[in-house]
Amino acid sequence: MSAFKSYDVVIIGSGPAGSLCGIECRKKGLSVLCIEKDEFPRFHIGESLTGNAGQIIRDLGLAEEMDAAGFPDKPGVNVIGSLSKNEFFIPILAPTWQVRRSDFDNMLKRKALEHGVEYQQGLVKDVIKHEGKVVGAIYKADDMEHQVRSKVLVDASGQNTFLSRKGVAGKREIEFFSQQIASFAHYKGVERDLPPFSTNTTILYSKQYHWSWIIPISPDTDSLGIVIPKDLYYKECKNPDDAIEWGMENISPEIRRRFQNAERLGDSQSMADFSYRIEPFVGDGWLCIGDAHRFLDPIFSYGVSFAMKEGIRAADAIKQAIDGNEWKTPFYAYRDWSNGGQQIAADLIRYFWIYPIFFGYQMQNPDLRDEVIRLLGGCCFDCEGWKAPTIFRNAIEEYDRKQMVG
Ligand code: FAD
């Protein structure tokens, strides 16, 4: 084993959570090493960004670069119910984009490097502990094992949930939305709506957990995703191609219409078991951000926005913990803030799946419309005192009570 270096913060993973956390830690004067296993640019799913994510990107000074990269503006989300009935439109209040994640994540990584985040391509394999506290990591690079010491080790490893797998963070527990499999691919030649709505996200659903996304990720490429329950996937489909075909036939005729002249680019892929939560996700010398501790349901495109927000918020907690030489107060505050926002998002998503038609009505309700649009824009962490979260919470508690009784 070679000699080791030491940093204030070592981050596992260079997705949106890791890059934003690194940038914010550097702004606070901390030394940061980010270790990423994959060579960038690399494929990633998660291509439609909320208005909140758009604001973070503009705050980073990346708006011009986003436009130059050809990422389409996202005017809003069109939600189309079963048999193309119950359609409603969710406008985006703050300008934002649809992205090809390989290029977007690479852009964030470059920004992190500009801010002085050091970068190491390598696979983090284990943690180093001293008297119960996490004090570093062991990673493999260039066929050798290396040690690095940290005051705080940040798990931003996404769905790999590294610290959970190592038994440092809690076990992965399935969320309500976990019984789904997503199959997806990129296409050229997809028929789009007319401008200015040609670059909307389109969500089509037929019934609970049977849905599809269409996201224009460049001037000539669209992402198609088909999400269906696991048991249906295993019964009807042998592979992601079958699932996409099943979705085109059964979710909405609108998908077939839009893709009739489209050509697929590359292979299709499937993903299962993407919805979970991990508790605890903070501890002595470590914390988790983004998908490394929780992912809900992709239906409202919260993932990148929450990952970036958590990266930024965690940097505050890290700075306080290092300066004050005490982790519990700042890390528990980060944990409670995260759980609060994620719970509001989970309620919104469950309400949509339980009462999709009422959800559409609430979008028209003048008393709630503004709040719902802002919650869908990613404001779930900044909505203290709002009415809508309480209404959705009460409705879900009532639903759960009835399920238990019935
Ligand atoms: P990631 O982006 O996954 O980054 C983690 C990084 O860690 C990766 O680069 C990985 O290579 C690296 N890594 C992992 N393990 C190690 C290790 N041991 N050592 C070193 N490096 C490691 N979100 C949206 O905002 N919009 C969408 O439209 C959307 N659609 C989605 C559709 C589906 C089907 C799914 C499942 C998710 C979707 N998401 C969407 C969610 C989004 O993809 C994630 O929430 C987001 O990428 C989380 O960012 P992150 O930085 O936490 O993790």
UniProtKB/TrEMBL annotation:
In terms of SUPFAM superfamilies, this protein maps to: FAD/NAD(P)-binding domain
Per the UniProt record, one Pfam family is FAD_binding_3
The EC number on file is 1.-.-.-
Check the record and name the Gene3D superfamilies matching this protein: FAD/NAD(P)-binding domain
Q: Give the Gene Ontology MF terms in alphabetical order.
A: oxidoreductase activity
Q: Which InterPro entries does the UniProt record give? A: FAD-bd, FAD/NAD-bd_sf, Flavin-dep_Halogenase_NPB
Keywords assigned by UniProt, alphabetized: Oxidoreductase
Q: Which residues form the FAD-binding domain?
A: 7-325
This protein is called what? NAD(P)/FAD-dependent oxidoreductase
